[in-house]
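lol ok so funny story. i was supposed to be doing the assay writeup but got distracted and ended up predicting the structure for this chain instead. priorities right. anyway since i did it might as well share w the group, maybe its usefull for someone
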Amino acid sequence: MIERVRAVLVTPDGTMLVIRRTRPGIPEYRVLPGGGVEPSDESREAALHREIHEEIAGKADIVRLLHTMETDDERQLFYLARIATWSFDDRTGPEFSAEGRGEYALEEVPLTLEGLDGIDLKPEEIAHVLRGAVGAGSLGVEASL
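and the output, tada:
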């Protein structure tokens, strides 16, 4: 089974970092930073730290596992994390130089219902989970900042 890890990266300003994906022939959408767990990763959390470093040259403090999505052949684990520094210019992930992958742009989105409603966050299931948690005030990261 393929495992992927992604992070809801909450900034000190109460925004979250998302990657805007622009690909030929597909409407623009956003994804959370992250990627596949590799055999060399010591843990899922180690994989997430590696992915955050590759994609946004950042270091995050993982707060907790927020949600798990599973299909027959893939498991995605979504973590809630705090991040204070990042640099999209210093990213090193292999996907950024691959031909035909489209554009990756880093954005800060308000971690509010309005902010979430203003973007097409994929997969829809995590967008729904985030809307529910933000609407109920149960995300819990606010007290951790």
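The beta strands are 2-10, 15-23, 26-31, 34-36, 59-70, 74-85, 103-110. The longest strand covers residues 59-70.
back to the writeup now i swear
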